[in-house]
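Q: Please design a sequence for this.
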């Protein structure tokens, strides 16, 4: 069983398709297809179900995935450990929720770059669910995600504590006015794709407000989401720090929520590993240096 085949399999499982996996691996689709077919032939069973929307894991694929993730991550850790002489250098792949990247990370990333210029830092934004998967399979060295996260192979620290607010068009001055001026089905929920913790929180809030079947509209960017809220298309659940810095702050209203809906911790997570290589250790040190890490 070739390690490269297992690594390719893990990426296809994460991305849900050959095309997206090829893009993530920076290779051609035929190479990805060939590796998956070779792995299926060796195991003797199909690992994916193919359909018009992409690929989903079969039972065998689901059983294989955690082993493939661990082997891929361990291989990368071994390589980094062998190269690590105590001086932070080389690649460091960090992931983040888009809201965190927009407001919390610029100062931290700038500080890290000044202190450790020999490290080649890359940042990828995604949902919490996707980020956790990428940390587990070794695609990312660490990530900022919404807590809590409970997994035996992951460790993390609280980086920030956010207050979530319901963001509506300016004309809705209170939650009462929103309810009074909204159809019984509720307003449209403007959300990031499935796997976003803030989306889950908004759906819980809508259930409490009596709108469990409200329409959802998935948007891909933070600016686009706030713009659609300002235009009256729907409502969103976002960190107060993000919404208050928007250029459209005069066109929106921020509604304070109960603590059960409002408070969320942003964690910086990484895999538990025998060797904590220097580039990642330097990044964690910068969390303290910039004063962002919570006590």
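A: Design:
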């Amino acid at each position: 069983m070739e390690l490269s085949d297992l690594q390719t399999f893990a990426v296809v499982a994460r991305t849900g398709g050959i095309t997206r996996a090829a893009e993530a691996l920076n290779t051609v689709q035929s190479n990805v297809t060939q590796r998956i077919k070779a792995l299926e032939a060796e195991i003797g069973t199909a690992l994916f179900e193919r359909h018009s929307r992409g690929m989903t894991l079969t039972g065998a694929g689901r059983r294989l995935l955690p082993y493939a993730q661990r082997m891929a991550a361990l291989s990368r850790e071994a390589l980094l450990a062998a190269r690590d002489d105590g001086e932070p250098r080389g690649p460091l792949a960090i992931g983040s929720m888009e809201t965190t990247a927009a407001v919390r990370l610029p100062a931290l990333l700038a500080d890290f770059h000044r202190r450790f210029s020999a490290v080649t830092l890359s940042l990828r934004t995604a949902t919490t669910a996707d980020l956790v998967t990428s940390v587990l399979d070794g695609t990312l060295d660490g990530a900022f995600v919404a807590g809590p996260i409970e997994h035996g192979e992951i460790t993390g620290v609280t980086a920030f504590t956010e207050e979530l607010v319901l963001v509506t068009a300016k004309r809705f001055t209170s939650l009462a006015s929103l309810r009074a001026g909204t159809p019984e089905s509720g307003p449209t929920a403007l959300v990031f794709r499935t796997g976003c913790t803030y989306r889950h929180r908004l759906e819980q809030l809508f259930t409490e407000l009596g709108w469990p079947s409200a329409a959802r509209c998935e948007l891909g960017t933070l600016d686009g989401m706030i713009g659609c809220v300002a235009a009256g298309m729907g409502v969103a659940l976002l960190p107060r720090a993000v919404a208050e810095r928007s250029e459209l702050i005069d066109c929106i209203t921020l509604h304070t929520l109960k603590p059960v809906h409002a408070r969320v911790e942003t964690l910086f997570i990484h895999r538990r590993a025998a060797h904590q290589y220097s580039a990642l250790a330097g990044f964690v040190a910068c969390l303290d240096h910039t004063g962002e890490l919570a006590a």
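Q: Thanks. Anything notable?
A: Residues 111 and 286 are 7 Å apart (CA to CA). The mean pLDDT is 91.
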